[in-house]
Each structure stands twice: as C-alpha cells, then as structure tokens.
Amino acid sequence: MSKNKKNENNGYVYFHETEETVIRNDETQKTAVAKFVKRKKAKKIFLNTISIVLIVAIVVSSLFLGKRGIEKFLVLKQEEEQHKQSTDIMEEIENLTEEEKWAYLYKKYPELINVNFPTGILCDYALYYSNNPQTVGYLKIEGTKIDTPVVQADNNKYYLNHDFYGKSTSYGAVYASYKNSFDPFDRNTLLYGHNMNDGSRFAALLNYKSLDYFKKHPTIQFDSLFEKNTWKIYAVVITNGSTESDNGYFFDFTFNHCSDACYEEYIEELEKRKLYETGVDLLPTDTIVTLCTCTYEHDDARLLVIARKLRDGESPEVDTSLARMKDTPVKYPDSYYSDPSQNPYKNDKKFYLY
Predict the structure, then answer these.
(1) Radius of gyration of the chain from its Cα atoms, rounded to whole angstroms
(2) Domains of the chain, each with CATH number or no CATH
C-alpha cells in the first residue's frame, strides 16, 4: 500500500486504497485499515460468487424451460395434427355406412391395406391404431381438453414417460391399466393420466372437485375400438396412491375384476368417500371406468373420477338437479388430517379386495 509524504503540520498519513482518505498515523489504525481492506475484498469475492451462482441458475433455468417449451410444442403439436386429421376424415364420412367408411379410408390412405386391424374395429379409430397398435380406445369429456386416444402397454410404467407415438416425454400419455381388457369391458377399467400445469392430459379432472363443474360435465365418452359408449359420472374421490400415506393401508381402486360381494362392499365404500352426491346411482351389475390423476390435498393424494356405463335403454341425460353436497362427512385417508384422531372414520372397517 503506498503512502503520501508525511505532513509535519498535522501528523496524518493518507491511505488512498481505502474509502477513508485520512487515517491517524499509529499502528492500531494501520491494523484496522488492513482488516477493513481484507473485509472489503472478501465481500467482493462473496458478491462475485453469488452473481456467478445466480447467472448459472438463470442459464440452467432458461435451458430447462426452453427444453420443456420445445417438448410441449413437439408433443402436443403432433397430437393436434393427428387429431385434426382423424376429425376431418370422420366429418367427411359421417353419413356413410361402416362398409362405405372403410372403402373411403382405404382409397384415401392405401397404405392402410397393409395394417393388420383387429376384427370389428370401428373405422373412426383406424388411423390412431395404424399409428400405434397399442391403441385400445378413445376418451372424450365434452367442453374440456380431454379428447384423446387411450393406449395400453404390458405394464403401467411405460406410458408414464412416453407419448402416444412412443417418444420419451414428461407428458406421458393417457393409458389403461395393463390388467384391463375391452371386448367386453371389465367390471372396472382404470385410466391414468398426468395432471399437467398447462392444462393438458388429465389436468381438467381436478375441476371435478367442484359440484358446479360436475353439473356442467356430468358424462364421459369412452369408447373401445369396437363400440362407442357414454358413461355417467357417479363419484369423485380423493384417496391415497400407496400404503405409505395411510398408515400402511391402501384403498384398492385398481382392480379390474372382483367378486360380486366384494363389488357391493366397494360401492358402499365409495358412498362414504365421494365428495358429493351426483344423483347417479351405481348397482352391482354396473360396469365402471375410473379416471385417476395426481392431486395435492395431502401426501401421495390421487383424484378419482368414477363413472358407470350407460345401461341398456337408459337415456344419456343426467338430472343434475339431484346433485348436492353430502349430509355426512367425506372419508379421506389418515394423511389428510393434521391430527389423525380427528378423522371421523378412524375406527371404520377397512375395505379389502377378495
């Protein structure tokens, strides 16, 4: 550190490298200045380090968001194009017989002649099947973003992170449990889908926690490759996704078949667990579809929208004036309560499949 020549009149020394221009000329003050300069350098290093960390974080975040944005664009755009292609074709052949539809389709897309379609498949879903032979049906809820083909792998993990075309993506696809069959439907068909922040996949299902939303969308269109079907929503349930979040108990909604007596007990359990009364009944002779996605009321929570298949000769209309809030408490998993002793069903008999 440089010093100016001493001024004999005032006894001060100037230290230009400090913020103070005049310091007393004694050893104590020299030590203090040295400490001050050291602290200033350390502070500068600290601030520079923080700045570098922030810059790196911003760059990484930008790259991640950019990747997610590109992923969203590529995944959803291809699906939208496929959907538009299929929709346009169906509008063109809407008034034709099934035989005439197939003739039109083969003429427009001669490459389909080489596709080994399953016997009895509806022409409406031929293009989806030709793009992915793991297509097993089609799901649509009028007035929502849920309007998608349903696929099925030989396990329940593949389509968690692969789209309809088999490409790796965090969006996954809407898929059926590997246990299910569709000709005819099982007693319970289970469909999974992610709850995406942009409103895609099964995000719209979260709206069914609202009674008013149910009144606007009380039915589901879920078709197999071989028949078209309307399903009336019977119950909306919040439950747990594993034993870890409910003191070792799992409310098993994932079955495809169970005994008649067990199914009756399952219906009784749903009566306790549903968020509100839809005015739609469920009989032991009914076939149901269960739509499942993540929700965030408690750890490992799952939202279920359960609908029953339209009965023979029944009107597809739902009398939503019968829908109302329940008179009894809703049954939730223990993890829903900050104090499990407050669970009104803490001593209730647990339901198990048999």
Answers:
(1) 32
(2) 1-83 (no CATH), 93-131 (no CATH), 135-342 (2.40.260.10)
Task: State how far Cα 69 lies from the chain centre.
Answer: 17
Q: Look-up: residue for tokens 């879903």?
A: 125
Assess contact for 305 and 236: CB atoms under 8 A: yes
Q: Is the peptide bond before 184 cis (omega within 30 degrees of 0)?
A: yes
For residue 28, the cross-strand partners are none
How far apart, in Å, are the Cα atoms of 59 and each of 46, 56, 70, 182?
20, 5, 16, 48
- Whether the CA torsion 183, 189, 194, 198 is positive or negative: it is positive
Q: Which residue type does 156 have?
A: N
| CA torsion through residues 270, 272, 275, 276, sign | positive
Q: Tell me if 186 sits within 8 A of 86, measured CB to CB.
A: no
pTM: 0.80
Output b/e per residue, 36-56; b: 16+ Cβ within 10 A: eeeeeeeeeeeeeeeeeeeee
**Which string of DSSP letters, residue by residue, matches 182-224?**
BTTB-SEEEEE--B-TTS-BTGGGGGGGSHHHHHH--EEEEEE
pLDDT in tens, 95-148: 999 999 999 999 999 999 999 999 999 999 999 999 999 999 999 999 999 999
Max Cα distance, the chain (Å): 114
Rounded to whole angstroms, how far apart are CA atoms 63 and 55?
Answer: 12
The closest of 186, 188, 192, 328 to 266, measured between CA atoms, is 188
